[in-house]
Structure formats: structure tokens, C-alpha cells
């Protein structure tokens, strides 16, 4: 199938918002500038590459979910409303000519467009090893952007949802011989890996009380490290307080589940800090948005400008075998 025929058949969907003057089919998309000076554009890009972020035989709906939801999660961590995105899709020829694969991929994108209110304005398609790059744009009030540099000593460190499920699901992807303790455990963990849930609604509602936030893409300890370095503070995480799903503990045991929760990536939950006085407000918002929030630690004063995340178990510092995923490590 030719490039422009592929785009017209599979990637023309959704209702074009008034803010989009020109979208797919020209050299550039044209978007009307913001009318409110109080709002900023939040822009983020994520790339997923076969063999690095997923296996080449991934299901198309799972790839679409992982690609778009990872970007939506970045907007959630900034407290931004999703608006527009572009898609760069590199396809091997066997997939470019597979109408079923393309239909399932684009249908999943269309469903996510509808769910989160964003719109595909353009992008690029090319031939090569399977890869997806999405750049998404949102809007956020300048005064309410949840910047990583805003954490303060005494803040509570909180997370949404449960942690470690995605890396638990990854074990089944990488090892076809891994036996499920219960079929439901495997299904839950694979769903969490293949179809992460960006906490957009929670981020939008909670930003008035949140000091700073980051999404958990590379692992809790690794991602929280970005906050403590940007804010020039340290943090203590109580490993016994990490939120673990029954499926993760049931499949891998308590200690391995804790390790996965602290260091596993791809959960796309939010890690954020708040003034303790706002915990009740945050819990109300969590209930309203159907999200569980757990306090897992606190922000502390750094010693000698050594900004670290300390992990504690039963009051003692616990050394982890790894801190999280690192590109190029």
C-alpha cells in the first residue's frame, strides 16, 4: 500500500477541533495560537523501538496503547490537558501490507483519541524496522504546572495505583515457559504492561494541590531521583508501603514484588509530592477519579548537596539490585 493511501485509509479519524486549521496531508499542520496568556503549551515526545521497548511480534492494539498512553502520562505528570499529537510510524513491509494489523493499530488510537480528547494532526510514515514516535501537545496553566523542581523538605511522596505490575507482565512476554500461579494473575499483569492507564483525569484535578510530579516510566526510585536532583533535596521511601497488586505478590512473592515496584518501569503511574496539609484533599480527588493514592515516603534534607533516594525496609536502609531502567547504560 502506498504511503498516502495508508494514511487516508487508516489514520483519518476523529472530529477535527476548531483549533486545528490544517492537519494531515500538507507539509505542516496548522494550529490556532492560544487565546489565553495564562496557559502554556506542554510538549513531549516518546519513541518505542522494536527490540528495545517491545518485541517485534507485539499485538497492534498493545503497541498503539503503549505508544500514545506513555505520552499522555507525561502530560498527566505536568497537569496538562491533551490537545493534539503527531505520529511517526516506521513499518516493515510485511506490516505495511497487513490491513488487519493496520486496522487494529489505528482503531486503538482512535479509541484513545475519543477517551482522552486528543487529535492526530499529522506525522510521517516510512519503511524500516518497526518503531513508533509520538509527539503530543497539551495545555496547562503556568501557575499550576507540576514541575520537578518544586519539591520541599517535609513533603509527602505519593503514588497512584499499584507499582511493579508492568515489569511483572514483561516476565511473561520474555519467558513463554513462565507458569502462571493463577491465569488471572497473568492476565492482569499482561494487561498492565500492554495497556497502561495514564492518570490524566487525576493529574488535572490534583494539580492545584500537588507540588511536583513525574510519571513512573523507568521505575519509582529512578524517576523520583529526577525530582530530588531538580529540587536539590533527598527522599526516603518505605518499601513496605509500596502499593502492590494481589496478582504481583501472588505470582512472584512479597520480596520480589517489592523489588519490581521500586525499580520496574512502564507502570505509568504518577509519583508526586504534596504538603501534608493537602493529603485529605488529594484523597478526595483520588476517590472522585477512581484512583488509589498511597503515601510511600517523604522529602528530606540533603547532606552536603548529595541528593539521593533512600529505600528503607523495617527502618533499615535496603540496597536494591538495580535502581531502574537506563537508556544507553
Automatic annotation (TrEMBL):
A Pfam family this chain is assigned to: AIRS_C
Reactions catalysed, as given in the entry: thiamine phosphate + ATP = thiamine diphosphate + ADP
Record-annotated PurM-like C-terminal domain positions: 152-305
Record-annotated PurM-like N-terminal domain positions: 25-140
Chain sites annotated for binding ATP: 123-124, 148, 217
EC number: 2.7.4.16
The protein's name in its UniProt record: Thiamine-monophosphate kinase
Residues that coordinate or bind substrate: 53, 266, 325
Residues the entry annotates as binding Mg(2+) 3: 27, 74, 215
Pathway in which the depicted protein is active: Cofactor biosynthesis; thiamine diphosphate biosynthesis; thiamine diphosphate from thiamine phosphate: step 1/1
Key words of the record: ATP-binding, Kinase, Magnesium, Metal-binding, Nucleotide-binding, Thiamine biosynthesis, Transferase
Gene3D superfamilies (alphabetical): PurM-like C-terminal domain, PurM-like, N-terminal domain
Amino acid at each position: 500500500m502506498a504511503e498516502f493511501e495508508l494514511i487516508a485509509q487508516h489514520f483519518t479519524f476523529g472530529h477535527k477541533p476548531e483549533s486545528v486549521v490544517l492537519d494531515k496531508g500538507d507539509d505542516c499542520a496548522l494550529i490556532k495560537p492560544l487565546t489565553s496568556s495564562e496557559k502554556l503549551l506542554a510538549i513531549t515526545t516518546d519513541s518505542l523501538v522494536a527490540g528495545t521497548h517491545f518485541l517485534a511480534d507485539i499485538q497492534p492494539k498493545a503497541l498503539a496503547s503503549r505508544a500514545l498512553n506513555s505520552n499522555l502520562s507525561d502530560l498527566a505528570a505536568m497537569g496538562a490537558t491533551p490537545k493534539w499529537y503527531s505520529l511517526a510510524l516506521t513499518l516493515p513491509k510485511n506490516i505495511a501490507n497487513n490491513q488487519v494489523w493496520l486496522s487494529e493499530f489505528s482503531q486503538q488510537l482512535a479509541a484513545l483519541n475519543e477517551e482522552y480528547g486528543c487529535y492526530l494532526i499529522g506525522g510521517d510514515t516510512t519503511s524500516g524496522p518497526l518503531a513508533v514516535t509520538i509527539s503530543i501537545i497539551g495545555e496547562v496553566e503556568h501557575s499550576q504546572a507540576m514541575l520537578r523542581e518544586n519539591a520541599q523538605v517535609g513533603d509527602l511522596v505519593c503514588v497512584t495505583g499499584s507499582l511493579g505490575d508492568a515489569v511483572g507482565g514483561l516476565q511473561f512476554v520474555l519467558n513463554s515457559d513462565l507458569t502462571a500461579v493463577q491465569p488471572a494473575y497473568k492476565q492482569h499483569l499482561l494487561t498492565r504492561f500492554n495497556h497502561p492507564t495514564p492518570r490524566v483525569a487525576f493529574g488535572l484535578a490534583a494539580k492545584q494541590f500537588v507540588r511536583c510530579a513525574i510519571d513512573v516510566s523507568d521505575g519509582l526510585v529512578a524517576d523520583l531521583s529526577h525530582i530530588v536532583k531538580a529540587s536539590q533535596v533527598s527522599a526516603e521511601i518505605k518499601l513496605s508501603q509500596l502499593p502492590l497488586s494481589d496478582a504481583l505478590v501472588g505470582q512472584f512473592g512479597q520480596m520480589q514484588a517489592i523489588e519490581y515496584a521500586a525499580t520496574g518501569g512502564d507502570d505509568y503511574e504518577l509519583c508526586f509530592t504534596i504538603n501534608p496539609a493537602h493529603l485529605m484533599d488529594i484523597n478526595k480527588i483520588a476517590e472522585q477519579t477512581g484512583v488509589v493514592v498511597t503515601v510511600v515516603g517523604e522529602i528530606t534534607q540533603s547532606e552536603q548537596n548529595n541528593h539521593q533516594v533512600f529505600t528503607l525496609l523495617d527502618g533499615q536502609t535496603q540496597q536494591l539490585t538495580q535502581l531502574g531502567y537506563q537508556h544507553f547504560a
